[in-house]
Amino acid sequence: MSSIEIDLKDTDRNFLINLQKELLTQTTDGNADPRYWGVKVKKRIYGFDSDYADGWEVVDARAVCTVGDANNIASVIKEAILDHGFSTDDFDEDNDKYTYGFMDNIDDVVLRMNEVARLHDCGDINDSCNYFDVSYFRDIYEVVDEAVFLTKKACMEHIKKNAHNYNDPHTYVMTAFRCPEYERLLKILKETDWAAETTPRIVTNVNSTGKNSIFIGHVNKLEL
Questions:
Q1: For residue 104, what pLDDT band results from cuts at 50, 70 and 90?
Q2: Distance in angstroms (rounded) separating the CA atoms of residues 70 and 58
């Protein structure tokens, strides 16, 4: 059996020392070892009945865009006037008592918007075409599959650099259930004295079967 010794570079040793310190001192966030962190993001799902929804958005079916902010009637009316061809008179008290400040039901607001749009486009307020719709939604949170981190610090740094790719991201700790390989890896990372003068080395052994095996530890003598 022959052995091939690979010395750790100083940069690798420092990385392992710092990683070990972080693993030993970081918060557990209430989860047992073996822990790992992921990114949890908000996902908005549409198509709910108003009684079972978290909120609503107004959609312009022609432009395929939202009108105003979610759950904000004042912003919907403001944007309808500024960007969608409506006037303040369309929401005035003299027009069927639909007053800007007193329209507190989004279904009534959208009903009024559709009536005005039909009147402008085809001259028939009773036409069946709806130009605007209320879309009710629920917000759920899901863990991103592609992002996995040994430490909460690394997860937070990832979110800081990539927040523009996520919707309301935050760290989320999980426990690797019945995962002995990962549990052993964490044990090695936490318990090995990476700063010792006898540098831990990675040794690849080629045994009689021709298969490679890897040992991580303090090596004093190599078998050739």
A1: confident
A2: 7
